[in-house]
Amino acid sequence: MKMIHEILEEAEKASGKNDKIKVLQDNQCRELIDILRGGMDDTIEFILPEGAPPLDNLAGKDSLHKKTKNFAYFVKGGPGERISSAEREGMFFDIVKKVHPKEAELLVLMKDKALIKKTNSAHYKGITKKLVSEAFPGLIRK
Length: 142
Hints:
mainly alpha
């Protein structure tokens, strides 16, 4: 199974809109959907500090597969509001240090809503809200 950053890189390299959509749809999985929605849907607010935790010397090799189940602890309105910020941040950092460095970077981009840059350009070229909405109708609410 491909890592999530590999799917996004493959979609980025695809030659046209329809090919990009096909790559995303062909690799659809819960984790890809969670990353795209978390990083692009403005109705989802993360209750983690902005910026990256220390990403130096990350030796993780895991994919994000099966790691997104705890994302509910990181969003406003989720169970993470009932635990201390230190515990919540510790849970996030635990995931970050276990995954491949490119997956860790992707987590931070999602959390900081930086998959789409302030200039409305995509971190992964061509992987925009509009494209994701076409690939997965109803995924992004706002």
